User: What shape does this take?
Amino acid sequence: MSGCGQASNSKVIKIGCAAPLTGDQAQIGIDKCRAVKLAVQQANEKGIGVPGYTFEVLSLDDQHNPAQAVNVAKKFVSDPDVIAVVGHFNSSCTKPASAIYHEAGMTQITATSTNPELSKQGFKTFFRIAATDDVQGPKGAEFAAHHLAAKKVFIIDDKTTYGKGLADEFERKSKSLGVEVLGHEGITQGDKDFTPLLTKIKSLNPDLIYFGGIYPEGALLLRQARSLNLVSEFMGGDGLTTPVFVELASAEIAEGTYATMVGGDMKKVPSAQSFIKAYEAQYGEIGQWSAYGYDAANILIQAIQKAGKKNRAAVLDAMRQIPSFQGVTGEVVFDEKGDNKNQFIGIFKVEKGKFIYIGPAE
Amino acid sequence: MTARDVFIQQVTNGLTIGMIYALIALGYTIVYGIIQLINFAHGEVFMVGAYLSLFAFTLFSGFFSGTGGSIFFLVLIFLFAMLGTSLIGLMVERFAYRPLRGAPRLAPLITAIGVSFLLQNSVMLIFGPTDKSFPNLIETKKISFGAVTLTNLQILIAVVSLSLMIILHIFIKKTKTGKAMRALADDREAASLVGINTNRIISIAFLIGSALAGAGGVMFGMYYHTINFHDGYLAGLKAFTAAVFGGIGNIPGAMIGGLLLGILEGVSAGYLSSEWKNVFAFLILILILLFRPSGLLGSRVVKKV
Assistant: This one.
C-alpha cells in the first residue's frame, strides 16, 4: 500500500477530518472539524510543522453511516497528501474505517469514539482521546446510584456500537450496585416517535431513564417523556453533551438532564481559555466536542513536526514517541493500545439551558 | 398507571401519528387512483411542507407579537405551507410526470425517485443539513384524564386532519371536479371522450394530495419539534404502507389504513418491543401484499376515487 502514497511532490500536508457533516448529527461533526481547522490554521501561523510545508484540512462527510465511513477512509488513504486523520466520530464508523487506515499505515486519532472494542483490534495506527464506554458507563451508573438515589432504572439505547455498548456497561454496573433494572430496550436512529416505549416506561415508574445514544433521539425522548407526564430523571453519555441537545429539547425541558463525559471543567484549564476565545471569534458558540477535535489535531501536528517529514510511517513512529500531551481537555497519555490513560469522567448537568460541569462521576 | 390506562394511552398516541400517516396516504392514493402512478416523491412533499411552515414562522412572526396563541397566525402558517406544497406538487406533475404520460409504467416510477432526491437535496442546501428545532406555534397544554395524558396539539392534529378528510370527501362526492376525478379513475380514455380535460384533472389531483401532505408536514413539525431534510423518507414509506393497507386508490381506505397503521405500530412497539417498531409497519405491508393485495377496502373497485 505504499505506491503513489509517497510520490507526491506537493508542499501541502493534509490532515483529514472525518465526521457526520450532513444529517441529524451534523452539528457535532461540524464542531469537531472546525476545531481541527483552527488548530491547523494556528500551526501555519506559528510556522509549526515541517519546514517548507503548509498544513491543510480535508474534511469528509461519513454521514454516520459505516459504509460511507469506509468510502471516506479509502479517499483519505488514496490521497498522497493526507498524512493522518482525525476521526471518525461514531464508533460504528470508526470501526470499519480503522481497518483501512491500518492497512495503509496511516495514523488515525479519534477524539470521540468510545467503544472499548476499537482499540482491541491490534491496529498500531489507532489512537483515541475519549474515555472508553467501559469506564464511562459504569461511572455514570455510580453517579446515578450514589447521587441521584436511583433505585429503579430503565435503560434505552439506539442499537449502535456506541449506544448499545455504553448502555450495556451502565446496566452491568447498575446491577452490581444493587440497582433494579426495570428493562433495557432499543430504539432506531432517525425514528421520531418514541411514545409507545415511553408509555410503557411510565407504567413502570422508574427513578431514572438512562439513554445510550446521540442527542437527536435523546432530545425527542426527553420531550416526549415530559409531555406524557413522565417525570423520571434523565441521563445519558457524551452523545448528549452538545448545546444542540438543549436547543432541540428546549431549555425548559432539558433543564436537569445529566450526562457523563470525559474530562472536567474546561474553564479551569488556562490553555482552554485562549482556545475558546479563538474558536468563538471565528465560528460562534463552541460545541462540547470542539475541544477534543482541537486536541486531536494538535497531537497530530506535534507528531508531524517530530517526524520532520511528510511521511505516514514516520508520523506513526513519532506518535508512539510522544510521552504525554497537555491539551485543553486535560493530559493525554497513550497506552500501548492507543487508548488515553487519562480516563477522567465528569458529570455535566443542564442548568439554565447549558451543560455545566458539576463534578467527577463517582 | 393501570393496564387499561396504558392501553388507552398507546392507542391515543398511535391515533395521533396515524392521522398524519392518513393525510400523506391520501396523496398517494388519489394520484394512484387516477394515473396508477406511485408518486414516491410524495413523502418529500410532506417534508417540504414542514420546512415551509418553519420558513413562514420566521417570515411572519415579526408581524405578530409573541410566538403562539393567535389562531390567525396558525391558519396563516398552515395556508402558506399548503399553498407552497401544492405549487411544488403541480410543478412536479407538469415537468417530471406529464412528459412521460404514456411511457411504460417503470419510467415515471424511476422519475419519482429522482424527484425525491432532488427535493431532499434542495431542502438540505437551502435550509442546512442539521436538525432544525421547530418553534411552538401554539402553547402546549397537557390535559390529563386520570393517568392518561393528552396534549392540545394532539387534539389539534385530530381536528385538522378529520376536517380536511371530510372536506375532501365532500369535494370528491359533490363537486363537478370531484365527479370528473371519479370519471378519470374509472376510465381515463372515456372521460376524455366526454370532454373532461384530463391534464387539468390530473393536476388538481396532485394539487390536493400535496396540500394535504403540506398540512401533515406542519403538524409533524409541531408535534415532534424537530425536522430534518430526510424526515420525508420514512414517513412517506409508512404512509405508502397505510395506503396499500387500506387499498391503494381508495380514499376511505387511505384514511382507515393510516389510522390503523398508527395504532398497530404504537401497540406493537409498546407491548412487544420498540426495537421492532418499523419492522411491524413493513411486516403489515408484506402480509397485506401476500394475502390481500387489494387492501382492506379493495383497490380495484369501480369507484376507486
Summary: Chain A has two domains: 3-131+267-328, 133-262+346-360. Chain A touches chain B at residues 21-24, 26-27, 30, 159, 185-188, 190-197, 199-200, 202-203, 205, 216, 219-220, 223, 227-229, 244, 247-248, 250 (CB under 8 Å).
